[in-house]
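Why do we care about 3D structure at all? Because function follows from shape, and shape follows, mostly, from sequence. That is the central idea of this module. The next example makes it concrete: a single protein chain, its amino acid sequence, and then its structure expressed as tokens.
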Amino acid sequence: EILRGFRSVTGPDSPLLSYFNSSDTNLALVRIERDNRPDVCFTIVVNRWHDNVSYFAMILEKEVLDSSKDSMDILPGFVGSYPNYFFKIHEKDLPDFLSLLSGKEKVNKVKIDRFVRYGINRADPRFWQEYDWFQQRFFQEQPVEAGFFDLNRYYPPARIRQ
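And the structure:
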């Protein structure tokens, strides 16, 4: 049911893709807290469209990106080793989170603030606790493939929530 909800909001028309358009932002891990059941993890992958993927074009990557063709996939479990952001969402808040990802609302400050509320910023006191949860779950679910997450690409600016 959760996966069906995520699949309904993926695609190139998500207004948040136009806001989160940095070529450095392309992978987020999402923890869904559930009552009386184990929490589950999903990965948001932003697919950045490149007009040219030759070696020389990749040196000047920003010149060959076309954000109008970007898309998004939300996959169960863990994909990738370099998360750019963590999200923690209670299952009761999932409809609100999904509405933010859908193309039904224009991006504005209120919408972005609602979206960021679900995120775990690196200045958040819960950051390491959430990192540990994702890391332990990764080792549990994929013991052969799992490794340590590299946080060198956890870019969002640090800020303290009020």
